[in-house]
Amino acid sequence: MFKFPKKKNEVSIEVLIRFIWVSLLLAIIFAIPPLALFLGIYHFTGELIIGAVIGFGIHFVILAFSGRISKFITKIIS
User: Fold this and answer.
1) pLDDT tens track of the chain, all 78 residues?
2) Which pTM value belongs to this model?
3) Residue 20 burial class via C-beta count within 10 angstroms: exposed 0-12, middle 13-18, buried 19 and up
4) Who's near 35: CB < 8 A, 6+ residues apart?
């Protein structure tokens, strides 16, 4: 039978606060630009499909660079 090591239950408050801020900033970076493009295109042209395609495209381009963005934000906050 395998014996797994005990989980670390104590996490410092500083690590939790840093985790919350990085997660919040990542969520804002992933959501706001695609949503703004989608709503802007829909508002100015009235084309729902074009706005959705461009919004989703930008969302996935940003998602492709999520590792680099996360490392950069973590450096700034640390």
Assistant:
1) 556 566 667 778 888 888 898 899 999 999 999 999 999 999 999 999 999 999 999 999 999 999 999 899 988 887
2) 0.70
3) exposed
4) 55
